[in-house]
């Protein structure tokens, strides 16, 4: 089974309507970790890490609305869990965006 993890909010104007139903209809598992873009939390990240650990041997597609949440979460995951060199992990995130404000604080934890 393939898995789709959504870090975006269902209430966002660009969110897919009934994404969970669409994903299930394709025979895939849908996991929603709603991350408030104005307030990403360590609890959100811990949930993400738990899902990544649980599904580490199977294909996973992780997405959000603009790939900002995903790039920040993967930066921390690569750095802290996978042990990737911080400079390399940061360069991969920086290709997508350079976090500021609450997101700069989030990735610095």
Output the helix-strand order.
EHEHEHHH
Largest beta-sheet characterization: 3 strands, parallel
Proportion of residues in extended strands: 5-15%
Strand order of the largest sheet: 2-1-3
Q: How many strands in all?
A: 3
The shape, in one word, is globular
Task: Flag low-confidence runs.
Answer: none
Task: Report the mean per-residue pLDDT as an integer.
Answer: 97
How many helices in DSSP terms? 5
CATH architecture: Alpha-Beta Complex
- Report the structural category: mainly alpha
Specify the CATH class.
Alpha Beta
| CATH level 3 topology | Protein-Tyrosine Phosphatase, Chain A
CATH level-4 homologous superfamily = Protein tyrosine phosphatase superfamily
User: How much helix is in the residues?
Assistant: 40-55%
Report Rg.
14 Å
Distance between the amino and carboxyl termini: 33 Å
Whole-number tally of structural domains? 1
Fold and architecture overview:
It is built from five helices and three strands, in the order βαβαβααα. It is mainly α and 109 residues long. The chain has a single domain, classed as Protein tyrosine phosphatase superfamily (Protein-Tyrosine Phosphatase, Chain A), CATH 3.90.190. β1, α1 (19-25) and β2 (29-32) form a beta-alpha-beta unit. The radius of gyration is 14 Å and the shape is globular. The mean pLDDT is 97.
């Amino acid at each position: 089974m393939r898995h789709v993890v959504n870090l975006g909010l269902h209430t966002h104007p660009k969110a897919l309507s009934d994404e969970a139903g669409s994903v299930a209809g394709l025979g895939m598992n849908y996991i929603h970790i709603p991350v408030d873009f104005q307030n990403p939390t360590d609890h959100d990240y811990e949930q993400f890490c738990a899902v990544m650990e649980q599904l580490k041997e199977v294909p996973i597609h992780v997405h959000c609305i603009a790939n900002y949440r995903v790039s920040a979460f993967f930066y921390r995951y690569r750095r802290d869990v996978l042990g990737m060199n911080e400079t390399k992990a940061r360069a991969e995130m920086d290709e997508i965006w350079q976090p500021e404000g609450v997101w700069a604080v989030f990735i610095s934890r």
